[in-house]
Amino acid sequence: MLRTKRVYEEPSEDDGYRILTERLWPRGVSKERAALDQWMKSIAPSHDLRKWFDHDPDKWEEFKERYRRELFGSDAVNEMLEIIKANDTVTMVYASKDEEHNSTVLLKEFLEDLLEE
Fold first, then answer.
1. How far apart are CA 34 and CA 46, in angstroms?
2. How far apart are CA 14 and CA 61, in angstroms?
3. Residues 6-55: pLDDT tens digits?
4. From start to end of 1-117, where are the E strands?
5. How far, in Å, CA of 62 to CA of 47, rounded?
6. How many Cα atoms within 13 Å fall on the side-chain side of residue 5?
7. pLDDT in tens, 31-40
8. Of 8, 53, 56, 88, which one is least surrounded by beta carbons within 10 A?
């Protein structure tokens, strides 16, 4: 099972293997509070793409296309798929306030499509 969760929510045993999928560490969160198994910066959008998007929902459709292009052929995607296959539950943790328009939501969709193939 693949899930997403804000880093500001309480971790739980149901989360399984927890991976931070952000390039930058979330503000105001200690490593203990984050309770991560891994921080995977390499799966996050590039610095340039992240800055361009700037959490603007009006740019969401274009951001999705650009981020998917970055993900295709990425070693980080292959690593993530191996982690998913090795664990019953993987929770991808993110910091964004917008729970609909963020890279981790898109990453989950992208990975689920690959797993269905």
1. 22
2. 32
3. 999 999 999 999 999 999 999 999 999 999 999 999 999 999 999 999 98
4. 2-6, 17-20, 38-39, 90-94
5. 16
6. 21
7. 999 999 999 9
8. 88
Tokens of 9: 């929510």
**CB distance 70 to 49 below 8 Å:** yes
Q: How far apart are CA 17 and CA 11, in angstroms?
A: 11
Q: What is the pLDDT of residues 57-92, one digit of tens each?
A: 999 999 999 999 999 989 999 999 999 999 999 999
- d(C-alpha 86, C-alpha 62), whole Å: 33
In angstroms, the CA 92 to CA 106 distance is 11
Residue 47 and residue 67: Cα distance in Å, rounded?
11
Residue with tokens 């729970």: 99
Judge contact between 107 and 71, C-beta under 8 A.
yes
Q: Per-residue confidence at 117, pLDDT binned at 50, 70, 90?
A: confident
